[in-house]
Amino acid sequence: MEVKKLGIDQLKFSKGSKIYSKGEKAHFAYYVHSGKVNIYSPGGLLLGQIGEGEIFGERGPSLDESRSVTAEASTNCILYPINEKTIKKKIRDADPVVRAIMRSLLIRLNDINMKSEDFWRSLNVMTSLSDEKD
Description:
The chain has a single domain (3-133), classed as Sandwich (Jelly Rolls). 40% of the residues lie in helices and 31% in strands. It contains 3 helices and 9 strands. The strands form 2 sheets. A 5-stranded antiparallel sheet has the order 1-2-9-4-7. It has a 4-stranded antiparallel sheet with strand order 3-8-5-6, with no helix packed on it. The radius of gyration is 17 Å and the shape is globular.
């Protein structure tokens, strides 16, 4: 795993490097300056890919929860970490309706990730049972 500090608030991750793992304390969200990041469920299901100009990892610091997924560099990438204090200040300063929408979306994101994992497990069980009959 190669992680290089490029500047005051810039990190470089080489392809295949873990950015964070499920269960870790969430101190930062990340803005993708360049490259791509894969998001995996606890069981290893690819939930999505984050690209340039997007942010990921915001759920944990926003809701004071540990990481619910694992993030890994899909390509070499440069990320800008956004600390928990900054995230919470931006949320606090937002319009109350925007705050409520964001909280709702973050909670739904976690629910969708868990349901995707459950569906994936069920599908694997059904597939393995049908393979045994053949």
